[in-house]
Specification:
It comes from candidate division WOR-1 bacterium DG_54_3. One of its GO terms (molecular function) is rRNA (cytosine-N4-)-methyltransferase activity. It is found in: Cytoplasm. 46% of the residues lie in helices and 15% in strands. The protein is α/β, with parallel strands linked by helices. It has a seven-stranded mixed beta sheet with strand order 3-2-1-4-5-7-6, sandwiched between helices.
């Protein structure tokens, strides 16, 4: 695998333990990324079949090389929102790791980084048309404010949207650091880092339609599980975790799922120390009834 696409899987042991791997079971990794969780499944249960899905073509190319030594592994370049069309037979376990990969964060050309200048992109699937530059430069103030408030839970959404429109009157906003400077100038000093992070999160969610995709994929994934099959979801912010919690609760009340994690599992202090990007992770798991 290319060194630039190395990614440390979060809550690896906990996720695999909760999948309760069967000797020759079939498992779906809906967010293949750098392949860390899929590799963990194959190492622990070599006879298991794993179907890895990722919408990021760069991840697919890199991870195919990394995992080429494993048999009974199928890798598919698609969005997990299409899981019902991808998976034709019931499976023993399904995993979602909703975080963006270290490569996506660290590679300036992807447009996710707060620290390195790059184009305002933020597309997971680089073949799609909508990107962050389109939103920032062409959406009206009300739409921008709604994105920042709903997807970033940003208290200064109105002020930031107004500042973006003011800047747009004089020049196009093209790069991540240009946007970062606009956000920082629009808000109080003590909120700068938090607000910039929230605005970038909001734009990423809007570009990739992440929350609607998650809602539909979770519902379809539950339907695709065999009886006693497991679903494990690792989320990284409250909007994702809320959807997972609500979906599991609804399915539990309907008698379709048994919730295995009354409270989400969190990374240990040791894991956070070795992988700081794991800090916000929350893992929830359930079993098909």
């Amino acid at each position: 695998m290319s060194d630039k696409y190395k990614h440390t899987p979060v809550l690896l042991k906990e996720a695999i333990d909760l999948l309760d791997l069967k000797l020759a079971g079939t498992y779906v990794d809906c967010t293949l990324g750098g392949g860390g969780h899929t590799e963990g499944i194959k190492l622990q249960s070599p006879a298991a079949k794993v179907i890895g899905i990722d919408t990021d073509y760069e991840a697919i190319l890199a991870t195919k090389t990394k995992l080429s030594r494993f048999e009974n592994l199928e890798i598919i370049n698609d969005n997990f929102k299409n899981i019902k069309n991808i998976i034709k037979k019931p499976v023993d376990g399904i995993l979602f790791d909703l975080g963006i990969s270290s490569h996506q964060i660290d590679e300036p050309s992807r447009g996710f980084s707060l620290q390195k200048d790059g184009p305002l992109d933020m597309r997971m699937d680089r073949s799609q048309r909508l990107n962050a530059k389109e939103i920032v430069n062409n959406f009206n103030q009300d739409k921008l404010e709604k994105i920042f408030r709903e997807f970033g839970e940003e208290r200064f959404a109105h002020r930031i949207a107004k500042a973006i429109l003011r800047k747009r009157k004089t020049e196009e906003i093209n790069t991540t650091l240009e946007l970062k400077k606009i956000v920082e100038k629009a808000i109080p000093f003590w909120r700068k880092r938090e607000s910039v992070t929230r605005i970038f999160q909001a734009l990423r969610i809007a570009v990739n339609d992440e929350l609607d995709n998650l809602r539909s994929a979770l519902s379809d994934a539950i339907e695709l599980l065999k009886p006693s099959g497991r679903i494990v979801v690792i989320s990284y912010h409250s909007l994702e975790d809320r959807i997972v919690k609500h979906t599991f609760r609804q399915a539990g009340e309907a008698g379709r799922l048994k919730i295995l994690t009354k409270k989400p599992l969190l990374p240990s202090t040791r894991e956070i120390s070795s992988n700081p990007r794991a800090k916000s992770a929350k893992l929830r798991a359930a079993e098909k009834i």
